[in-house]
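Input/output pair, single chain:
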Amino acid sequence: MTTIFEPVAVSLASSRFKVAKLQMKSGTKISEQAQYQIQKIMDELTATNKKPDKQKEIEIIRKVCQKGEIRTVKPTRVDIYLESEDGEIYLFDIKTAKPNKGGFKEFKRTLLEWTATVLSENPKAKINTLIAIPYNPYEPKPYSRWTMAGMLDLEKELKVAEEFWDFLGGKGAYDDLLGCFERVGIEMRQEIDTYFARFNK
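Output:
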């Protein structure tokens, strides 16, 4: 599903970011204490004892990112890896437009694990880990975000459609992209409709 979006995203981001890469590893090491804190964050969110707060969660992990036994892990691969001119890192997990509610728990854990693996190698890193949903199937209505509110910090961990593409390519990138897809789509309308119909059920 994401195959068409990933190369387009990297190509678009290359003009604005120092590094833009596909399918990267976030890292391979995680501290025992970071794993413990990630589990604690997940438990609190699942029990709705706390609201997601990405900045706080990053700082909790940063404090313990090299404490205890350092373990080798194989986290989910990063779909899009970006680094800005000043070294700020953005790791994106691109998801289909209608993930089910249960999926957000896994997504959240992945984002926290990416944070921990990056910080275990560089505790001072300025790190952002996000879910990207490349298009809004509810258009022209806004994307229904409430299903994710308990797990994701909607401000800091989620970019949908226009927010995502404009973040990568600058203001107006989304509209330009729609124009390109429109031009290509006129010739390939039937194939494209058939392809996307599979995900809109």
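The mean pLDDT is 86. Residues 4 and 134 are 10 Å apart (CA to CA).
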